[in-house]
């Protein structure tokens, strides 16, 4: 009997950077015959920079030159491309609008779309999902959150029967890499950032990683599938890691028995959802404290899974499921993209067109940023004189905030000189005094009011650094 011919699904690939090239590796090099009867074939690849002659020229350009184009419509409109993969790295707002245009055009052409571009979904999600619904096509985005970790699939399918309370964790590999290296090896922020870029973790514009924008975009998607929220940019209270100094690790560790981790949190009290992205103090014995480098970890807390297991220690610390894996880099992201591609190629359409979520859209509201609350760590660097702590505590008191502890370490000359150098301070190193005040639960609004008063004081040498303390209060 003659062997039946394979069914071929054509792919149009937009992007040939870190992720795009890793996708080509998976399709070209590893062999693409994963399933009997089904074969994937790249129809066309769009690259903005073929870089021929450049030492870092595209890996597959020489052997597959005929597939490459610098015209994106040749990919989007290609008659043999059934699925369009968007793996472009955006550098600015104009890129985002352009890439949104590519996605909507592909959907309009009757093609499904798989994307690793969380920035575009965060900025134009509503418009994109409406276009998908209009065309009856699917858009898949597993690779947008947590690199290779299959979290979107878990939330939308495996936890369909759950009532979600919280989804949180470490979802920016670059920030986690930088903070881990600073903590473990005392590296400077700049050195650790450079290494993260060299390892291919960072976005095209690393500012989006360190400022928390990348994590914000991912959190918006997580909050979407978990809580049915269509959050708009700006709905998340966001802080970057740029202001973290090695001295913060000294205080966190020696006084707080904690490290500092880049957290993203969406949690619900049953009527509103708090969403925040910030570096936070995480106790050394918390699960997330051990997650180092570019590894991501996403913890999920669901009401139903907690029932009957009240003695479980992990439940006490606010989670009952942990998803851990490589969160950045071409390989894991490409694997996540191709997971979506294979599922679409098989014709699995569990989600239907539209945005799946655990809680019906419209049930929960987004908590306003000013009302988000936590216990806080505030690190000061002052020009020392009598009465400063009393003065600062009075300002917190006036904002209705209870002071918890005052942490003051004896600093070596070297540590003071390091502060002096890194902040380019205009006083003598021996006049500098760093210390920390920790606060009981307060809202972001209260903190903003208190710090507005404090930062005007003449003894303040450096903008106070204030971080949530995770797992207390
Ligand atoms: N720049 C991202 C990160 C890559 O550092 O996590 C994955 O989205």
In a nutshell, what does this entry contain?
With 473 residues, this protein is of the alpha/beta class.
Any low-confidence stretches, pLDDT <50, length ≥5? 348-353
CATH class of the largest domain: Alpha Beta
Q: Sketch the major β-sheet.
A: 7 strands, mixed
Distance, first to last CA: 71 Å
Instruction: Tell me the structural class.
Output: alpha/beta
Per CATH, the superfamily of the largest domain is: Dihydrodipicolinate Reductase, domain 2
Total helices: the number is 16
CATH topology of the largest domain: Dihydrodipicolinate Reductase, domain 2
Radius of gyration: 24 Å
CATH architecture of the largest domain: 2-Layer Sandwich
Q: Shape, please?
A: globular
On the 0 to 100 scale, the average pLDDT is: 90
Q: Helix proportion of residues, in percent?
A: 25-40%
Oligomeric description of these chains: single chain
Counted up, domains total 3
What percentage of the residues does DSSP assign to strands (E)? Answer: 15-25%
Ligand names:
L-homoserine
